[in-house]
Amino acid sequence: MESASVTVGHGEEHHGPPEANQSSRIDRQTLGILLFIVSEVMLFGAFFASYFFIRVVAGSGPWPPHPFELPVAVAGMNTAILVSSSFTMHWALESIRRGNRRGLQMGLMTTFLLGATFLFIQINEYVHIGFSARDDAFGSIFYGLTGLHGAHVTVGLILLGIANVRAFRGHYGPEAKDHLGVEVPGIYWHFVDVMWIIVFTTVYVL
Question: Fewest CB atoms within 10 Å of the CB: 46, 87, 88, 137?
Answer without folding.
Answer: 46
